Amino acid sequence: MSNICCSPCLPFVVLFLVILSVRGQHASPKMVNIVDFGAIGDHKTLNTVPIQHAILAALMNDMDVYVPRGVFVTGQVELYSGVHIMLDEGAELYASDDPRQYSCLSSITTDTGPCDYPLIFANNAEDVGMYGPGCINGGANDPPGHLVASYNATEQFITPLQFQFPNCTGYSCKPKLVVFKNTRHIILKDITLKNSALWTTTLAQASDVLIDNCTIYGDRRWPNNDGVDIMSSSNIIIKNSNISTGDDSIAIITHTSYACSNISVLHSHLASSSAAIKLAAYEENASGLVSNLRFDNIYVNDTNRGLCIDPRWGSGSIMNASFSNMYISTRFFSSPWWGSAEPIYVTSMSMSKNQTWRGDVKNFHFENITTMSEAGVVLYAEDRPLMNFTFKNISLHIHQFSNISRPSHDYRPAPPPAIYYAPTDGIFIQYATNITLEDVTIRYLPPKQSFWGVCLNVTSNVKDLNKEGLTCLAAS
User: Fold this and answer.
1) Separation of alpha carbons 196 and 250, rounded Å
2) Which end of the chain is more exposed for a tag (fewer CB within 10 A), N or C?
3) In 361-467, which residue ranges form alpha helices assigned H by DSSP?
């Protein structure tokens, strides 16, 4: 399982390395400087037109775009094939808060409505990207209070302002930061993407993507500011990166018949008030496979839910995934965030009577993982069993280390009641087949809590449970 998707990724990685070797970080004769087109980096002047003109000039002359030191306010701009944006040290593209600066880019998901309104996007393009060490700033709560409608101090939860966009629904009436749609050969390297009002980096039916040594962060109290959303996209590597967001750090989700496959996340640090890594299906037409996934050498810290697999709507399969060499620390945040501090959470169920999940979740391998969490592992299915799960060399530490708790199973989004009180078991398994626990240790750390359950709680519809070294150490 450890080499589950490396080989298919090698050709495009070699290509990226060749491209990187011929691109520097400072302006060269092969770059056009946005200042030469009238851009002013004073954090006040609107620069949409000069930046777009610079991109067009780069396209016509086979060059890249250079952003020097300064804060350049801009509205929506489009990247074209063969064009990369190079942001120097101290360079920042800052998102305009004028809704007239954004146009609709059709979305492939109903999750955020029929339109996306990205700050920077590429559509039907190839060989595009952005390089640091500069940054792109969506302006969410930066400066403090910017784009904020209200703040609930008790829940530590921000309600964002909604933009007056046409054809948007609910929480989607805000700009996304970067969207690559129907685009291939994409590089994001050495860049900071921060404070997005909606999803930070969106890959929609994209392929051959490298995200390397990037910093992605947003206010931990801000909903729906996901770090990287991978939708119906393939051949992707995320490595050497730090992602800290309110919503999911990395979400890999099928919304169409296109597959999400050959995806690796390596040597990275993740933190989220929601889930660090999410695998899911959320759409009636979500029939594409989510498969051949590798997560290795990942540090997950101060997170509400660690690894989350939760398909709710569609008919594909989520399968062939490995998680290895990981440390996961989780705690309960507050009720608006889905989750109850589970380090590993796998569910397979329907969102509602009319939004049903008809697919499989199978062939998962977890190895060399240590957790420190306020809840245990949850494996739960309703209509179709979880199949072929292996846990090897796993050390689970359960400890009430924050001042709040919610001993429960949180199955949101799901029919009400979606949250059930439940004691904190080390591992809870319902409706699964062929589950192997090999060299698994569960430690309950003092002080003992009244709501703690048992080390292993298995329902009667679990078949072929193999225990090859299960140790339980209870708190006194």
Assistant:
1) 14
2) C
3) none
Give the global pTM: 0.94
Residue 148, token pair as written in the block:
């904020």
The answer to whether 247 touches 226, Cβ cutoff 8 Å, is yes
* Spatial separation of the C-alpha atoms in residues 139 and 158, rounded to whole Å: 14
Can you name the residues that pair with 192 across neighbouring β-strands?
A: 135, 215
**Torsion, Cα of 465, 254, 214, 238 (10° steps):** 50
Q: CA–CA separation, 117 vs 111, rounded Å?
A: 14
Whose tokens are 């979305």? That residue is 107
Side chain identity, residue 436: T
- How close are the terminal C-alpha atoms of the chain, in Å? 38
Of 121, 105, 12, 125, the C-alpha closest to 59 is: 125
Q: CA 85, CA 65: separation in Å to the nearest integer?
A: 5
Cis peptide preceding 417, ω within 30 of 0: yes
Q: Closest by alpha carbon to 284, among 338, 217, 351? A: 351
Q: With contact defined as beta carbons under 8 Å apart, do 9 and 237 qualify?
A: yes
In the chain, which stretches have pLDDT less than 50?
1-25
Q: Residue 10: helix, strand or coil by DSSP?
A: helix
CB contact set of 110 (below 8 Å; sequence gap of 6+): 283
Q: Which tens digit of pLDDT belongs to each residue from 434-445?
A: 999 999 999 999
CB of 245 within 8 A of CB of 269?
no
Q: Please give the Cα distance from 152 to 143 (Å, whole number).
A: 18
Q: Counting beta carbons within 10 angstroms of the beta carbon of residue 268, is it exposed (0 to 12), middle (13 to 18) or buried (19 or more)?
A: buried
Rounded to the nearest 10°, the torsion over CA 117, 123, 129, 130 is -20
From CA 338, how far away is CA 364, in angstroms rounded? 23
CA distance 261 to 470: 33
AA identity, residue 383: D
What is the C-alpha separation between 426 and 444, in angstroms, rounded?
8
pLDDT in tens, 306-326: 999 999 999 999 999 999 999
Helices (H) and strands (E) in the chain, counts: 2, 39
- Residue 184's CB: how many other CB atoms inside 10 A? 21
User: Which structure tokens are listed for 150?
Assistant: 């209200």
